[in-house]
Amino acid sequence: MQNDKQSKADNATHYEVIEIFDSLDGEGVRTGQAVTFVRLAQCNLRCDYCDTKYSYDGSRQPVPMRAQDIVAKCNAVYKRVTLTGGEPMMAKGVDALILEMTRQGFEVNVETNGAVDLRPLLTKRDKENLPLFFSVDYKLPSSKMQDKMIEPHFAALGKKDIVKFVVGSKQDVQVMCQKIKEHKLDACTQIFVGAVFEKFALHDLAQEILQNPVLHNARLQIQLHKVIGIQ
């Protein structure tokens, strides 16, 4: 009976959806693979280099959708979803949406900004062995949002998860290396490193990875979707 009540409650919840579309993943471990992107509205940060302001600035009106309707729009052939934003973890009842996706056989990647505590959902994921992983930004000084980072949950991430750094300055490189060591990220997660467009050269970032022992297991990412000109 409790499960039935919970199911009805979940189906009554509406999520504010900015867009749902299929594309090639441009970042992380699924780079180049076909994925359904589900972008939710709102964000609790205002990063200096944000490229998805339309998810929170009112320029696009979100569409209220139930979990079952969102899942119905996800591609059932390749069964991969990237839940993104804005900040998707801000959405009320988002855990129920994520769990519904996994129940329907989708592998879910949640792109999140480091300013929402993931530990309760990480515990559930690991306990139930859900097909779920997190791509978590660590916001460096050039974002002007580093003070919003929830430091303890970075150490709670697992080998499925990604920590992503976006570098815009030499100071960012120094802080990135400090945080990798502080949270032992090299041992417990996958590390991806990108550059702020027109602020830090990819060549220079590649040299940092080659020359700095702290970064030897990091992977350079170049936002493939922008290179090939698709959404």
What's the quick description here?
The chain has 231 residues and is of the alpha/beta class. It is 31% helix and 23% strand. A 9-stranded mixed β-sheet has the order 3-1-2-4-5-6-7-8-9.
Topology overview:
Layout: H1 2-12, E1 14-24, E2 34-40, E3 63-66, H2 67-72, E4 80-84, H3 94-103, E5 107-112, H4 119-128, E6 132-138, H5 151-154, E7 162-167, H6 170-182, H7 185-188, E8 190-195, H8 202-211, E9 219-220, H9 224-227
Parallel strand pairs: 2-4, 4-5, 5-6, 6-7, 7-8, 8-9
Antiparallel strand pairs: 1-2, 1-3
Describe the fold and architecture.
Helices cover 31% and strands 23% of the residues. It is built from 9 helices and 9 strands. The protein has helices spanning 2-12, 67-72, 94-103, 119-128, 151-154, 170-182, 185-188, 202-211, 224-227, and strands at 14-24, 34-40, 63-66, 80-84, 107-112, 132-138, 162-167, 190-195, 219-220. The protein has a 9-stranded mixed β-sheet with strand order 3-1-2-4-5-6-7-8-9. β8 (190-195), α8 and β9 (219-220) form a beta-alpha-beta unit. The protein is globular. The chain starts with a helix and ends with a helix.
Summary keywords:
single chain; 231 residues; alpha/beta; 9-stranded mixed sheet; 9 helices; 9 strands; 31% helix; globular; disordered N terminus
Task: Return the average pLDDT rounded to an integer.
Answer: 92
Number of helices: 9
Helix content: 25-40%
The overall strand count is 9
